[in-house]
Amino acid sequence: MENKWYVKYTTVLLGLILTVYVMIVAKSILLPILFAVLLSILFAPLASWLEKYRIPKILAALLAMIIGLSVLFGLGYFFYTQITAFVDDVDLIKSRAEELLAGLENFLVTWFDVEQFVDFEDIEGLFLEFVRENSGTLGRGVAGAVSFATTALLVPIFMFMFIIFRDFLKSFFLKLFGRKSEMHEVKIQTIMSNIQVVVQRYITGVMIVISILAVLNSIMLLIIGVKHAIFFGVFAAMLNVIPFIGPIFGSILPIFYSLLTMDSLIYPLIIMGGFYLIQILEGNLFTPVIVGNQVSMNALIALLLLFLGAQIWGLAGMILFIPLGAIMKVIFDEIESLQPYGYLIGRVPEEEKQKKSKLAQKISDFKEKVSDEGNEEEED
Length: 380
Known about the structure:
Elements: H1 5-25, H2 27-52, H3 57-85, H4 90-112, H5 120-133, H6 135-164, H7 166-177, H8 182-224, H9 229-238, H10 246-261, H11 266-291, H12 299-313, H13 315-334, H14 339-345, H15 358-379
Helix pairs in contact: 2-3, 2-6, 2-8, 3-6, 7-8, 8-9, 8-11, 8-13, 9-10, 10-11, 11-15, 12-13, 13-14
């Protein structure tokens, strides 16, 4: 007997509620595992390449992990040194802020007869009162930061284990989902292979785009004469990993810093225009050509995933939910009963060509032509 629609609806709704609840409760467990899975997929080919030269499996996994984490620690050290340099600018920023507010107050007094627009003693008193009233919240925030640091230490451990046991885990999934028939086994192998390709190309492409943006942002800020230009350029490029809103927040910090430390108001406007032009290049050339269709999701689904990721896991969710959505699309496309959901996640067919600029489309067509010729030569 076919189930009633409300029975299916209730079952799906309960499943979604339970899934979200588990994701929230098990956040400290799931986040390091998911980050480790993505990083292990990215660096597993390096470990396999080292193993071809008769390097022991454990040593190859350890070297791959060290190479990957060295980049992350290098970025962390760079940001640490740059942030500590801001301590020297605190007095300058404070005095400049006082000048701007004093000028604004004089303007309001002259034209609108508004007096006592701002009082720094009142601001200091309000800040101290805020700290006293929210000491418990601040304490929980510090505890949360300590918990995050502890969780981050688990990522390299899980990453190391996943690289070592990658073949064992593949065999497990084949036994679990491909045991019904040879066709099921081939389909599971296809899904795992496609997931590996999507994750590797997506993360690699995003890293290349971030590197290009970091160089362009830094050069633009250096030409304008902004202090700490390299830090601001790299920081804004790093935030590009969060689609839509990341570039906006990345440009806000250097704009406000230039407003507080530079003599003319024209500098923030120039910086805003520079970031706008760079983002046009990123959206119409760099990302379409380099990342391409590795994450073939339409803008609506991507925005929904960002919102859900932010609500469930915060910033980590905004970073993770896009590649997780791409992985789910690979699975949906290979399972016949789930293909409509894969179609819903994917880009609108008639807009796929329009997504790219003419220059980006020509470059992509050239890359596809070269790739096809290379494949034909290999077959011959």
